[in-house]
C-alpha cells in the first residue's frame, strides 16, 4: 500500500507572495460601493426567482438598478478625475 503524500507544504510555502498588495487592496476599497450595489441588485433578483414579482419587488429591483448604475458612474468619475490631473496641455 502506497502512502498518500499531501502537497500542503508546497502550497503554503508561497502564501506570503500570494497576499494582495496595498495597491490591490486600495483598488478593491474604491470599487466596494459598486460591489455592494451589485450584490443588492442580485438580492433583489434572487427574491423573485421562485415567484411572480410584485409591484414592490419591481420597485426594489428598479431602485437597486439605479443604485448600481449611480455607483458605477461615481467610480468612473473618480477614476477619470484621478487620471486627468492638471488639465489639457
**Spans with pLDDT under 50 lasting ≥5 residues?**
none
Assign a percent range to the helix content.
55-70%
**Strand element count:** 0
Span between termini: 74 Å
Discrete helix count: 3
Mean residue pLDDT = 86
Proportion of residues in β-strands: under 5%
Shape: flat
The major β-sheet equals:
none
Cα-atom Rg, whole angstroms? 22 Å
* H/E topology pattern: HHH
Helix and strand content put the structural class at mainly alpha
Question: Helices, strands, pairings?
Answer:
Elements: H1 8-12, H2 22-47, H3 55-83
Helix pairs in contact: 2-3
Please give a structural write-up.
- With 89 residues, this protein is mainly alpha-helical.
- 67% of the residues lie in helices and 0% in strands.
- The protein has three helices and no strands.
- The protein has helices at residues 8-12, 22-47, 55-83.
- The longest helix is centred in the C-terminal third of the chain and has 29 residues, at 55-83.
- The protein is flat.
- The model has no long low-confidence stretch (mean pLDDT 86).
In brief:
The protein has about 90 residues and is mostly helical. The chain has helices at about 10, 20-45, 55-85. It is built from three helices and no strands.
Could you list some keywords that capture this structure?
single chain; 89 residues; mainly alpha; 3 helices
Amino acid at each position: 500500500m502506497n502512502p498518500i503524500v499531501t502537497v500542503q507544504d508546497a502550497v503554503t510555502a508561497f502564501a506570503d507572495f500570494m497576499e494582495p498588495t496595498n495597491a490591490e487592496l486600495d483598488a478593491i476599497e474604491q470599487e466596494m460601493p459598486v460591489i455592494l450595489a451589485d450584490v443588492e441588485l442580485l438580492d433583489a433578483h434572487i427574491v423573485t426567482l421562485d415567484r411572480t414579482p410584485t409591484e414592490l419587488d419591481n420597485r426594489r429591483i428598479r431602485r437597486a438598478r439605479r443604485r448600481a448604475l449611480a455607483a458605477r458612474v461615481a467610480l468612473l468619475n473618480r477614476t477619470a478625475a484621478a487620471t486627468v490631473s492638471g488639465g489639457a496641455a
